[in-house]
Amino acid sequence: MPDAEHRTTMLIAYDGSEESRRALDQAAALLRPTHVELLTAWEPTHRQAARGAGATGMHQGDWTSSVENEDPAYTSALAILREGAAAAEDLGLKANAHLVESATSTWSAIVDAAYELRPDVIVCGTQATTGIRGLWRNSTAELLIKNSSCPVFVVPPADNGDRPIEEEPEQEGQAEG
């Protein structure tokens, strides 16, 4: 249990999705922080375009962009971060907002920020994608769990409770032992 001098530090990954808003709401209700570090990771448009062109095998031109040129990805991420800070404030939390540029992946940007901010816990939402769709998508939550040096509090999507739990069918004629 933390002493009076130590305040639990919580890093909340916020991308503006319904899942990240739910994670913020659940963290506020269940973990009851007073202060949070709110983080939005973004990738510059030129890097997104280069990655997309590289995946198709097309020639990659010289992609240049900067924040000074008002990169639309930066502008969008900043708006998302402000929205998250306002949502945290509506929940009675004091949020320090952090906008970080993702050099390789969202999960690694969050882990790098956690290394610098030293939170006691990272909070994130998840889409809980399974089946074929799950094979084609990387799970940020799963990669945070595998690569973070602190606990990760993962909040499932709101409709996750509506999914039936698959039980193994009982086999007839099987003797109890």
UniProtKB/TrEMBL annotation:
<comment type="similarity">
    <text>Belongs to the universal stress protein A family.</text>
</comment>
<feature type="domain" description="UspA">
    <location>
        <begin position="8"/>
        <end position="156"/>
    </location>
</feature>
<protein>
    <recommendedName>
        <fullName>UspA domain-containing protein</fullName>
    </recommendedName>
</protein>
<feature type="region of interest" description="Disordered">
    <location>
        <begin position="156"/>
        <end position="177"/>
    </location>
</feature>
<dbReference type="InterPro" id="IPR014729">
    <property type="entry name" value="Rossmann-like_a/b/a_fold"/>
</dbReference>
<dbReference type="InterPro" id="IPR006015">
    <property type="entry name" value="Universal_stress_UspA"/>
</dbReference>
<dbReference type="InterPro" id="IPR006016">
    <property type="entry name" value="UspA"/>
</dbReference>
<feature type="compositionally biased region" description="Acidic residues">
    <location>
        <begin position="167"/>
        <end position="177"/>
    </location>
</feature>
<dbReference type="Pfam" id="PF00582">
    <property type="entry name" value="Usp"/>
</dbReference>
